[in-house]
Amino acid sequence: xxxxxxxxxxxxxxxxxxxxxxxxxxxxxxxxxxxxxxxxxxxxxxxxxxxxxxxxxxxxxxxxxxxxxxxxxxxxxxxxxxxxxxxxxxxxxxxxxxxxxxxxxxxxxxxxxxxxxxxxxxxxxxxxxxxxxxxxxxxxxxxxxxxxxxxxxxxxxxxxxxxxxxxxxxxxxxxxxxxxxxxxxxxxxxxxxxxxxxxxxxxxxxxxxxxxxxxxxxxxxxxxxxxxxxxxxxxxxxxxxxxxxxxxxxxxxxxxxxxxxxxxxxxxxxxxxxxxxxxxxxxxxxxxxxxxxxxxxxxxxxxxxxxxxxxxxxxxxxxxxxxxxxxxxxxxxxxxxxxxxxxxxxxxxxxxxxxxxxxxxxxxxxxxxxxxxxxxxxxxxx
Length: 382
Ligand code: ATP
Ligand code: MG
Hints:
Blueprint: E1 4-9, H1 19-33, E2 40-44, E3 47-51, H2 56-63, E4 69-78, H3 82-92, E5 99-106, H4 115-129, E6 134-135, E7 142-148, E8 152-155, E9 159-160, E10 172-176, H5 182-192, E11 196-203, H6 210-227, E12 230-236, H7 238-247, H8 253-271, E13 276-278, H9 291-298, E14 305-306, H10 314-324, H11 327-330, H12 337-340, H13 352-359, H14 364-373, E15 376-380
Parallel strand pairs: 5-6, 5-7, 10-11, 10-13, 11-12, 13-14
Antiparallel strand pairs: 1-3, 1-4, 2-3, 4-8, 4-9, 7-8, 12-15
């Protein structure tokens, strides 16, 4: 039975002098993700091994979701003895059909056979034991890897993981998280690059329900399975929406609302030392996401605003959401604050000067202060 899992790091290997910084973060995040499963983590020669695993499926499920992990392989570990290696290779290939090749790597140069010789010997023995198999060195269906290090390691399966960079190595950002399909995917993409996430959500109770809020908490929890612990800031937004609704032109409502969201997000971001804002916008998806709309939304921020979905079609975003497991929750039918006060004919070419003119009709600063003072903080763990 395989009780050892080899964990491969992807891009970390591109790193020069700070490689250790990245590896340390990855090890820390892996340990956290594996809490509660029985296994030990070992770092040797720039490779991570998880040993003494009881529930291999669960460990694989968790490890392949940790950003910075490129792929994993359940491995058979044995003595550096050709008899033993061949016997284990035969067992390992038992359920394989079709074509295969052996790929030996001899890190321990004292081992008497070189990699070509290991390939030949193991290949020959596997073929003799499993006559149904065939060797194909160009496009094999299975690759039997044999690594000779402190011990011998054999594996066939290579399970892809999420890739990316370890969370905590890329700074901190504030994600504007709605209950929709897009923003969780945007958050996933930024966290994948090693960025720690805070989330901010605007809710308009009683126009939006408790369930709508719970849905956002659930989405943040789904994200945290990848991104690690997330602090979610829930902002009361009813007063701002009502004021806008009563005092400002109907056609400007969405963009004005978005500007307030960005202003508040930026304040909270600065307090929590986030260095950027993240949204799920994509050019042209809705009226407020035209080039002019985005310009007007941006005009109120000085922090950089990252929009990782900017060039994605809705269908592509939906596929992505399905893959990361947020789609089912995102499509639950609870209303969002944007859908309630949506203008019938939103402007597609808003102008900053006109929006600023409308905003003079409100006491924006007081509205923002009151919203900030009503924030509810929820700490989300995977
Ligand atoms: P999503 O699917 O994420 O809801 P959307 O297509 O509905 O996006 P909009 O409603 O125009 O687009 O919102 C654009 C972006 O603004 C969202 O991706 C999100 O980042 C942010 N946003 C919208 N509504 C909220 C909200 N209630 N709380 C926090 N952020 C929000
Ligand atoms: Mg939305």
